[in-house]
Amino acid sequence: MFNFEDINLDRIVVHNVGNKHHDEDLKLSKSEIQLDDDDVKEVLLKYFLTAFNREEFYNFQHETDLNMNEVFCYASEYFEENVSFYDQSTNIAVHLYEKSNHPNIKGGEFYLVGFSNCVVDGEVCDALGIFKSENKDTFLKVYQKQENIELGCENGINIKKLDKGCLIFNSEKDKGFKVCIVDKTNSNKEALYWKEDFLNLKLREDNFYHTQNYLDMCKGFIGDVYNDENEVAKADQIDLMNKSINFFKDKKQFNEELFKTEVIEQPEVATAFDEYKTYYQNEQGTEVTPEFTINNDAVKGEQKHFKHILKLDKNFHVYIHGQRKFIEKGYDAARDLSYYKLFFRDEN
């Protein structure tokens, strides 16, 4: 959990990083910006920090040696060896430019920002912020000209829409620092360059990670095993999805044995679930922890991937939110069609 109420913006450098694939330039400023206007500082703090609203942390990684991760090294040098802030801004900007080599990556302003007095999980520490603005909005200007009110427009950055961001907290250096990111274009393949190619991050193994990991495994089990191919009715699949996500929403602590008793229930399904867990751990190269504190942010993030819609041909969409016992499936021989009965008390 982080708290930015008393955070200070101490230093800032702005460069422009183009798309190397399109032979666009890397334009480096000559020095830091001296911010003397408190109103501008306040606007920048809102722009840089508002989008960081989830308890999802990462660590820097490298397949060979953590010290070969470029951004990790630059951050380490800044935090601990007092290497020039400006020099590190150019180092990181050059590294980002080298990774901006996909035709769909947009060029834009690159910011390196030094923060102090951050509070992260109760610890006060400094932070290094890396941000990039790629998209411009058109703003309407209304201004007085002699005795008339005139209208105009100009392009600028919408301070409510941070495109890409990274906060590196000076904490847990031995694990690859505590890092959080924003990437508003991460649905596209080319956008992976921010998290993977440029920063090279992995999810930090905390309660957010364990919650997300377990729900991802549940979703995989329903999709790969508890499915149509194994003659599991679609309504039963949705019911297991609902019970799984509701278990996580209702409990504070996760216990796997209790989960299997209350959610999976049937012994033969529990056995199949255990077998899938072994497969999932081997396939993902990760351990699925059987006990942990449930993180609500992770539950909210994963909930949208648990589908509750029963699609019947192209005629009906039935939204199922629980109580499987109120749905019955049957077959009408005269019509040669399957049907569902829905039992309810109130009609709204």
UniProtKB/TrEMBL annotation:
Entry's Gene Ontology cellular component terms: nucleoid
The name this protein goes by in its record: Nucleoid-associated protein
Organism listed in the record: Labilibaculum antarcticum
Species lineage: Bacteria, Pseudomonadati, Bacteroidota, Bacteroidia, Marinilabiliales
